[in-house]
């Protein structure tokens, strides 16, 4: 089984980190690969950058289909391009946000997303609506630029922890979702300090992808996620 | 006041038609322009084509900002790229779908969208959720390829009318929203035959845009729709 | 085109102020008139006063129909009598609350109403439900008697501003809706001080009314908003 | 204990019938009275007539307060004037629609309203939203003029039964709510024929009113339903 | 008429107290009985204990049916076993939580539940969803062990009052629901101190049960609440 | 890793079948066991039987904890006892219904449950609400007694297929969820005939359970799903 982790931004350091954490928990028979677009946005902190990211996602899924990829995990909070990817792929496509939310709903009654930067709260709320879990989850934003995480994940720990504690006290959160890809190194220390499950959507998404492939489930090609019309052509990005 | 109608697909015939219908109802002081991307999709009937369209919309808004455009109307059902456009624009950006839904809610208790092709029902439902009118509106799809409308709008009249009648009988619709840009020629004959208001979102969107500009309202730059981060660069499409 | 601003309360000073602000932004071809009932309530701060106001609204629409009015704007937060007015009128009837909410949804992701007095929060919530925007808008009340605004709008500025700042900080509001008619003089100074759009529903409602009339849209007479039964007689209020 | 059944329309035959059915099930210590306005609408089949009815309801509650009434039941489907009445009354005010919906929710998982005429579906949906039971109840309209029921309730039996059967088959209804006051004579025969509970909101409302009074519960005067402002004056209807 | 108050836990002191408060407000013709299971949980503060309680509820309803009981009130916040009881009973079954919520909705626009211990907030939210009143009610938990209430109800008064005041200030509550059975002695002092209605669901539930029986309404046996399949056998608990 | 499939009913043939289908797709390192209660209900087709099933589920989880089980899958549509099990277990507990719904939401825009018998539609709707996917899924019931499936799964194929086709045509379903445990043999033939994914929640649930365990996620013991109070004692069923 071949599963592809798609980093929709162009920052290679994130891709490397994603591959490492995902590979560590894949089952022996799973080949995990991780890719990123050559052009686009260095991080995705706005709708405009999401549009660039979606283009990259489509190109990487197109390549993945030719390479025999069985399922994809989109490793960007907000699940950039997930609907486009489902149209192009035969197999399942899982966004890290929806995977994290679904996992949270299985182990906690209420939970919170701590995302960054604050202007992207709307992106989380969009996925939250699509998953239907709006009445069990709150969204909180912290003021950390995504690219600062490139070299120093640990530095964001205290600010994430402080906001998570507010979520537990004010929103009755019983689990915390890390609202950014590439933070899996925070899972262990934060869950220890908070005393509640802390969820990284990329690793969960990988395991759910393995599960869907194992059960033979693929993206439905009936209506919404059918392949794009024959006239559709993906542009080459410069 | 300068208002720009953005056709997110590459079909010039639609753009021409949109300009004509919008210009016909603009107030004397309004300069209406209509644009389309040079590359992208000939019609937008999938999420994949929406992603291409969003890229074109961003480029046209960027150009519009340099040309002093005061407001934009996105003339594609599903409001392709509307959130991206709001980040780039200073003035208001109005999607034809949300404009049609808002107008419908002001003149009818319940209403229906008749859109095409059926696989795009999910796109209408997405906007319907964002406008909040899900409990007053149903979405129906008819099996007409968008590009067939390029030369012969009238041909779609009977199938649109038949579906609209079902909406009135089964969904209690009291007004009908045309779920595609460029169908404004159907408004008059269909409303005559059906006996209920028939709504074209592009012309309504133009008037709402004029209204917002007249009252001095611009896109809020606080948080969600702030300008994209400084590092953001729009690619040139080939 | 003739558009009638209806002030459902009996305070003439409000009517004068509404006419002034609405006239200032109407297009040259629009004749704006503003009316108020001879009897009823001096201000509308309870459901009981709303019922009196609705009676006045019906009488003014009845008179307006005979005078060839093309559309109506109801200038009372809570949209007193809007459903009754739609039954009596041929053309569109727009409540200032729904107009403000729709405008806000076009320029901001989240927004808040600051209304007065606090007991009328339920009235705002009623319209909020009807527009469907409950999950994007909060309602806050300030303790200012409506009639104190008759002579001194500016005095309410600081208390409105303070509550609006709370809405921005606690509710993530990106735009503010003024929850009372006759406060259009606050739009400019408050939006300057807050740095976000501040919305007066009366002026927006006027422009939306112009827009609906221009596109030929009238109130649907199919089912809900059909004319009242033949036996219906409006009483003369003493 | 004194409970007042308020018929918001001017048709005395309905009032007599309501008094009879309510008196029949009141407990010995309860004095039931039934009133109607001298002027207003002969039946309430539109929002415009609801506004007239609300005025009458306020006047009758005002009189009731002076006569020591402990609670009120509003006997018109749509609960005309219920919010106004709560502001004027000290004791509880119960609408027949909300009472019927609450009773239905206690004895069935899903249920349907069969109301008349069809244009008033919106009135039922308004109350349905306020009670929160929208996802357990559907609303169906039958084409019977209210006043035809004045002399011949039985004539509406077959059309009500036919629609109720559709509700059971298509909407999974397990109980039926009669969507008009004065139909209590249909309860017994229809429930026999349908095999499911058939609910008349007036009799249920009377019993709930007795119950609230017995437990000492009165309308909360904190905020929303506080007494109208001191300046409020009820007009004398001609 | 015979009405049975079911205490789903094994603490006899609660049962005695429930019988006393319910008997005090029953009408002369009503015989009130109160029962409790011989085995199960001493208090119900978890889902696990709810499951034990449901078993006891079923056994007590089975016995009640043989003893000619006309209706049941489940006297545990969370309405333990209410759906099971409806399947076994012919007459109505009313949970104290749903009764309290319905009563609150008839006398206040917004209200709050103050329940205990905090981990049971999810139980209240479950019933809140079923009644549909989620958007009018908040749920607050206080840290009082249920069994401490056995001998000293008054001791919980101050902590309940403090939380109720927060509900009034922060959640706009206009009435307070006591989120535990057996607290009816708090109704009078708390409503005096708070100035808003304070609601005990058991006494309200008794009155609603009397009302449903008086109007002839029984649990619908069509579909959801039909009697359990013939093979169903209730175990004897040791 | 040890995962326990819990069949809440007493029919051994189902347990055997569940073990076979789950074992077939588990990864090499996973030990799958399947258990059933010694007493309870032969099938779960009512709330009353669900209560018996919940008791059995608790006992099996208690035993599982002592045997070192890492996660549980509840193999009964409606997810009998899932909340109780989460309180008793350290590791994750997954209901087959929620697993199926989550999987469906990852591969299709809209989907339908086909469950049996029809009276259990309410059970599916309960889980549907908890997962939040009500607006993307419909529930349809077919009239097949569960126990008839014990020996002849294939016999239910045609009736399931017929109802699934209605779901595709009328509800726009793009995937079908089998609303009963033990039907995994229908997945392959039905998906072939229908042309859309057909989902068995037990096998998906097993894979999700493996995934959660692999990522180190356990049931949150903060608040709602904390262990039951110390006084809690599980009864021995006779």
Notes on the structure:
In chain A, the strands form two sheets. Chain A has a four-stranded parallel beta sheet with strand order 2-1-3-4, sandwiched between helices. In chain A, strands 6-5-7-8 form a four-stranded parallel beta sheet, sandwiched between helices. Chain A is globular and about 50 Å long. The relative contact order of chain A is 0.17. Chain A has helices spanning 12-25, 47-66, 82-88, 96-107, 121-131, 157-170, 187-194, 201-214; strands spanning 2-6, 31-35, 71-74, 93-95, 111-115, 137-141, 176-179, 198-199. In chain A, helix 1 packs across helix 8, helix 2 packs parallel to helix 3 (82-88) and helix 4 crosses helix 8. Chain A has eight helices and eight strands, in the order βαβαβαβαβαβαβαβα. Chain A is α/β, with parallel strands linked by helices. In chain A, helix 5 links the parallel strand 5 and strand 6. At the A-E interface, loops of A face loops of E. Chains A, B, C, D, E, F: One of its GO terms (molecular function) is allantoin racemase activity. Chains A, B, C, D, E, F: InterPro entries: Asp/Glu/hydantoin_racemase, Hydantoin_racemase-like, Iso_Racemase_Enz_sf. Chains A, B, C, D, E, F: This is Allantoin racemase.
Name some characteristics of this structure.
homohexamer, alpha/beta, Rossmann fold, 2 domains, 8 strands, Iso_Racemase_Enz_sf (chains A, B, C, D, E, F), isomerase (chains A, B, C, D, E, F), Hydantoin_racemase-like (chains A, B, C, D, E, F)
């Amino acid at each position: 089984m071949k599963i592809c982790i798609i980093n929709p931004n162009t920052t290679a350091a994130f891709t490397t980190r994603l591959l490492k954490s995902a590979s560590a928990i894949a089952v022996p028979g799973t080949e995990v690969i991780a890719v990123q677009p050559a052009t686009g946005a260095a991080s995705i902190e706005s709708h405009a950058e999401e549009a660039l990211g979606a283009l990259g996602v489509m190109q990487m899924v197109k390549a993945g289909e030719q390479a025999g990829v069985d399922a994809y995990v989109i490793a960007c909070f907000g699940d950039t391009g997930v609907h486009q990817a489902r149209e192009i792929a035969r197999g399942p496509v899982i966004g890290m946000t929806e995977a994290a939310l679904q996992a949270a709903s299985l182990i906690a009654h209420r939970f919170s997303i701590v995302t960054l930067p604050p202007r992207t709260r709307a992106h989380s709320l969009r996925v939250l609506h699509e998953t239907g879990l709006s009445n069990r989850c709150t969204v909180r934003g912290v003021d950390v630029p995504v690219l600062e995480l490139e070299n120093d994940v640990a530095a964001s720990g205290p600010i994430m922890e402080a906001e998570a504690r507010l979520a537990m006290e004010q929103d009755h959160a019983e689990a915390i979702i890390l609202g950014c890809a590439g933070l899996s190194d925070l899972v262990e220390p934060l869950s220890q300090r908070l005393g509640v499950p802390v969820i990284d959507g990329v690793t969960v998404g990988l395991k759910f992808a393995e599960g869907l492939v194992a059960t033979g489930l693929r993206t439905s090609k009936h209506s919404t996620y059918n392949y794009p019309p024959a006239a559709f052509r993906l542009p080459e990005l410069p």
